[in-house]
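Pilot study result, target chain (118 residues):
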Amino acid sequence: MRRSSDSKPRPLPTARNESFKDFVLDQLNELPGVTCRAMFGGYGLYQGAVFFGIIYEGRLYFKTDERTKLLYVKKGMKPFRPNAKRTLKTYYEVPVDLIENQEQLIAWAGKAACRERH
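Predicted structure:
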């Protein structure tokens, strides 16, 4: 475990997390300007300067708004919960079947990045 500036342990990247991150980035390779930065034990996804996604513990989450959140809820997805005390209700887990479908994943990622711009 690494220690952050507030001395709380945070997980080291594992091969599983790294390979999942690499797979997601490969799936998103046709979305212009996508980059990935390590943050808080996971990764942030950006399109240019727009933060639109989170990769954390082998799961992918996209930014939502009231309209797009319904698509995730309808598929049984939950909001991002990095710990027992915190839930980010604007980031929802992306369904696995969608992650495996490059065309659909790019469409959903585009909506997530676009929501952030408004």
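One observation from the pilot: Residues 64 and 70 are 9 Å apart (CA to CA). A full batch analysis is planned for the follow-on phase.
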